[in-house]
Amino acid sequence: MEKPNVVTCTAPVNIAVIKYWGKRNEELILPINSSLSVTLHQGQLKTTTTVATSRSFQEDRIWLNGKEEDITHPRLQSCLREIYTLARVFGVEGELSGIARQGSGSACRSMYGGFVQWIMGQKDDGKDSLAQQVEPETHWPELRILVLVVSAERKPVGSTSGMQTSVQTSCLLKHRAESVVPGRMREMIKAVRRKDFAAFAELTMKDSNQFHATCLDTYPPIFYLNRVSQQVISLVHRYNKHYGETRVAYTFDAGPNAVIFTLQQHVPEFVQVVRHFFPPETNGGQFIRGLPVNGVALSEELKQAIGLESTPKGLSYIISTKAGPGPCVVEDQHLLGSDGLPKKTD
Ligand code: PMV
Predict the structure, then answer these.
(1) Over 84-147, what HEC string results?
(2) What tens digit of pLDDT does each residue of 45-93 get?
(3) How far apart are the CA of 160 and the centre of ligand 1, in A?
(4) CA of 211, closest atom in ligand 1
(5) Taking the model in full, what pTM does it have?
């Protein structure tokens, strides 16, 4: 048997602050508006992918989280087709975000670290619909991200079918894509470049709210936010109001989990506020994961100013993280063995 060529790569998660919602071409995955995201640090969240190739292998196979999946899935096939093309151009580095886009639109923004825009492009063939780094992860070191994982009760509507129904039925989405997002993209890039947290935060919250408004304008409507999500929104606004400045921002994707942006100096107090209003099941150390967060005491005045009803066990846990780099090739984390099959894990 020919010794296989094995390559392993890790890739980050990204969180959009200007949302992508709606395709103008379903097959090529071309969006109706540009979007912008922050790439999260792989020290806290990442995916690991191993590819093994050998002339001795009889067929293509794929495993996801150790379980074999259907390799004939159309989106998987579009990515594989392009990558084989690439392999033939041996030694030439290609523009890879165009390939990632054909797997899942928002994934193309994970091809770079830091602050990344996905330019919608105008061409019918999608050649100009690409991701581009706006600033690297080192640009704004004080920026922190908290993922508030909501104890969700059911699986929400998937993004693919959700955005399809929105494009077909929501005139608010059409207005957003044509008349709101272009200006917001310019403002957001300016806010990131200047590290203007107040401007960044306000645009982030308004864009999340408008995305969820287009979901409500979809017919039949789609609800991604639940009661806990709405309480997090109130908590953030009351916290900012108490201090008379925008210290914290929220954003929500196609599900109830909140992603919070803030500056390093505000993390300990804000996390304590969250813990106070969403007391975890036990006082165990597993509630806050990721980058360490110091404990602080809250003033009665602050608790009263927020004045929300307490929701025990509303959140499962919090992941504390920051902006991070793009995909990395790693040498020591192969998931496939020399036979091309998944390595045994217990
Ligand atoms: O690329 P998809 O199909 O996972 O859609 C992503 C949609 C949102 O997460 C809601 C917004 C975004 O830009 O990431």
Answers:
(1) HHHHHCCCCCCCCHHHHHCCCHHHHHHHCCCEEEECCCCCCCCCCCCEEEEECCCCCCCEEEEE
(2) 999 999 888 889 999 899 999 999 999 998 888 888 877 865 554 455 6
(3) 9
(4) 10
(5) 0.95
